[in-house]
């Protein structure tokens, strides 16, 4: 990987992003911890029920494929990030190598993805709580969680990074603990009514819905890997920037292994055909083997995990919107910051409105609430993945002598294949009726963003003309 001294600072690039030097505040283990823990959220703890019901035991292959696709994206992103450690990260990279329109779209789609993530985590948190409060309406609980996390961000949170690191440890420990508990139970170390594993393929085979079931499950699987933006900023946070590539490799390997092992052990105590999408499959599995006390504990841990992801997503969304505001690509109100607590209240206001709109739409539209939010977010994630890979190819054409991440193995052929896979999976997801609704929402948002770009350009041109005449 290249050193930070390779940053180029042409006038155009300076206008789009400020080169910064390494801050030296993050060690390699901390990067891995934040990377793995920051990605694991309700999208996996609750959302894995959807791909399991679609692909059956074949979902294990789906998560391996998801890991390979994400590895290529992280490799592409970290390669460019270390060469260009600038504020604004991948949005700036798209500006630099794909043009201002695609950079604008990249920034806004990432912001909208964050808003959809917050909304889906709020709904997931409500679903977790309904294990204990089944008669409380879902919309009341999800709205309450969203309001609470917005209030916390409004008043500011000290040591936010430290709190997020603790939450990451809890989430990782929950998955590792689940795997260890099931292994001990199956090997008879702990006496239990279930001493033999359930055959994953009994009566249905490994692919109960055929190989197409894997393709249909990939939209939700990719959602479980979303949140890889940490590697766009890690180049300026690491004490030793050269370790970014090693951290990326260890993160994606650890994450994929956790996903495959936890789901594999899950399917050994709970038949895939009985997995519900109305409760976390991990909680359901513990209830299935009559471990209700442990199920309640795990449900509480998952609730805290979802809450921490939601808090981080609100913070990230506000940062992205404020960045767009500084470049004139979002309303000026978005850059307003309070003097005392330094809270970006302008961006927080827009984020609050966005969450309210998506939560309202999710309950008004005739679709499963959580599935709609996850599907819409996943389609936007596919777009972000595609743009990151395209940015990498453009960067690579101009920087052939520079070393790339080991995760971008086999490039450029592997990069083209990954882009083709992302495009194919996005199109194939349209065969699912409920997922099409999320796609239509994304098309509508993209159209509105394109119209917004036209007016933004006109406004910028008018300002430039006024400055020139003055």
TrEMBL record:
Biased composition annotated in UniProt, kind: Polar residues: 1-12
Native source species: Alicyclobacillus fastidiosus
Domain of life: Bacteria
Membrane topology: Multi-pass membrane protein
Keywords carried by this UniProt record: Amino-acid transport, Membrane, Transmembrane, Transmembrane helix, Transport
Name of the featured protein: Amino acid permease
Protein localization: Membrane
Regions that span the bilayer: 31-52, 58-82, 110-133, 139-160, 172-193, 213-236, 248-272, 297-324, 345-366, 372-395, 407-431, 437-455
Domain Amino acid permease/ SLC12A: 31-431
Segments for region (Disordered): 1-20
InterPro entries noted in UniProt: AA-permease/SLC12A_dom
